[in-house]
Inverse folding.
């Protein structure tokens, strides 16, 4: 059977990486088995609705390459895919449960319930509307049929609640956790339909998963406590035979493993926890996203895939196609996955290394355009080849490679003080002269010539290479020095060497 899976976020703000990982695992399963990946927007909680959040979710999926087969922006056979637009469909299902005795009308006012909560032994939070309390409350189980009818006709406010059976063991299989069992007496009689006619999360979620023919519910561990209510709903509807398989994903933990990774951890430790930059529409506060931080979609997904899953081999670097082939729900861990930003960066860096230089050149070109620098494609491609091993993020290109496009702005004076010494520095004008006269201006020929020069004057690598490097690039870091010399060309190399000859004495004295 081809899976039909859904990513069902509530549009309450930016997408935490945990949410993107949920979307990814759903997507991988669908693609592996030729199934369908659905986006459903669960916006029944109007109070938590945040404008812009749905667009943000769609933009994230598009950026990551998690192509949606059915969803609010692409349509599909089960449209609409936004629950607020499905509102009229839910009532009949609530009525079905009323008719079968699995649900009841509850007329208790908010005030009455609050008073009850306050008077509950053990504090307000211990109060539950359930098998132990429902018979003392104002609902269609305690009121006469006539009174219920009268109240409904009068237009009294009511909600519809699920009648959770007392003292029953609710058992179901979770693909990741194995057999899960909950005591029904720990569950409360969840509201299914609110007084404004809007379904609650539980009701809309189960009805939609059924109507949309969802085969696997793959979602975060925080929804595990809701699962027994959902199982009871499937039973109450008589839909048990087609109930989806459940897979509750492990939490993504703080780097130290102490609790769930939150936005505050990101702020404190200096890394993003959201997919894209997000501007809070109320406060204007901007939260950083992985995209803007310089992550590329493929390594971002690769990193996320490994937060909770492993292929069972040593391989860590996967393209999205390879993830599709290797993924399995059975290999997802139960234990939470610690988020490690250094590791996330490593994935990005490993990926950049694999980008062919011509393509990398295209990706970094905007950084030069921004600075008004124009160079030939060949030049930029070679610069990209020399730097590709050294970039963690694309935006590192300018920092690492600016000396390809302009002479060094400053010199490593501390190193010069160690290396620009009487008895050695006198030989360098000759070296510059030899570079000028070199017949074949290639990295190999430069190396041979420099070695010869060293031997003839009894100098070591440590006497000569740092000086050439600082002349050309200003620092001790950077790609191979002879490759750099060839890329910038003989004229520019000689210009920089001459400048070093003129300036180094003064720098060393000061
Ligand atoms: N709307 C829920 C959320 O925001 C979906 C949970 C589920 O997938 O069932 O995560």
């Amino acid at each position: 059977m081809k899976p039909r899976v859904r990513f069902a976020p509530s549009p309450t703000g930016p997408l935490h990486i945990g949410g993107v990982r949920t979307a990814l695992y759903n997507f991988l399963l669908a693609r592996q088995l030729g199934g369908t990946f659905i986006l459903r927007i669960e916006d029944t909680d109007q109070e938590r609705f945040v404008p812009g959040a749905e667009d943000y979710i769609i933009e994230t999926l598009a950026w990551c390459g998690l192509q949606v087969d059915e969803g609010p922006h692409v349509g599909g056979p089960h449209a609409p895919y936004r629950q607020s637009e499905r509102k009229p469909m839910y009532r009949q299902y609530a009525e079905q449960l009323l008719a079968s005795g699995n649900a009841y009308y509850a007329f208790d006012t908010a005030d009455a319930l609050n008073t009850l909560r306050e008077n509950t032994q053990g504090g307000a939070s211990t109060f539950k509307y359930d098998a132990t309390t429902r018979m003392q409350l104002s609902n269609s189980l305690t009121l006469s049929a006539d009174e219920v009818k009268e109240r409904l006709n009068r237009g009294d406010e009511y909600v519809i609640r699920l009648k959770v059976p007392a003292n029953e063991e609710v058992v179901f299989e979770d693909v990741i956790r194995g057999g899960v069992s909950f005591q029904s007496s720990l569950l409360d009689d969840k509201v299914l339909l609110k007084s404004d006619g809007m379904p609650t999360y539980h009701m809309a979620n189960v009805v939609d998963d059924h109507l949309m023919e969802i085969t696997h519910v793959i979602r975060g561990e925080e929804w595990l406590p809701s699962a027994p209510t959902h199982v009871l709903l499937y039973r109450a509807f008589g839909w048990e035979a087609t109930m989806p398989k459940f897979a509750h994903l492990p939490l993504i933990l703080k780097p130290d493993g102490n609790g769930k990774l939150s936005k505050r951890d990101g702020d404190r430790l200096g890394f993003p926890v959201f997919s894209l930059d997000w501007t809070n529409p109320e406060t204007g506060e901007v939260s950083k996203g992985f995209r803007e931080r310089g992550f590329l979609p493929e390594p971002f997904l690769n990193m996320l895939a490994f937060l909770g899953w492993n292929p069972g081999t040593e391989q860590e670097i996967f393209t999205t196609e390879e993830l599709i082939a290797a993924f399995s729900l059975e290999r997802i861990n139960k234990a939470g996955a610690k988020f490690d930003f250094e590791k996330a960066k490593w994935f990005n860096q490993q990926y950049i290394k694999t980008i062919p230089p011509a393509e990398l050149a295209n990706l970094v070109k905007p950084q030069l355009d921004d600075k008004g620098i124009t160079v030939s494609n060949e030049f930029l491609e070679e610069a990209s080849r020399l730097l590709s091993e050294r970039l963690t993020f694309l935006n590192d290109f300018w920092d690492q490679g600016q000396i390809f496009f302009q002479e060094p702005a400053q010199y490593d004076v501390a190193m010069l003080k160690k290396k620009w010494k009487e008895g050695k520095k006198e030989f360098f004008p000759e070296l510059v002269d030899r570079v000028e006269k070199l017949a074949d201006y290639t990295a190999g020929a430069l190396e041979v010539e420099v070695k010869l020069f060293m031997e003839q004057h009894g100098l070591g690598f440590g006497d000569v290479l740092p000086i050439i490097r600082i002349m050309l690039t200003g620092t001790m870091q950077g790609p191979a020095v002879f490759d750099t010399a060839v890329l910038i060309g003989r004229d520019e190399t000689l210009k920089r060497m001459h400048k070093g000859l003129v300036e180094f004495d003064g720098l060393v004295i000061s």
Summary: The mean pLDDT is 96.
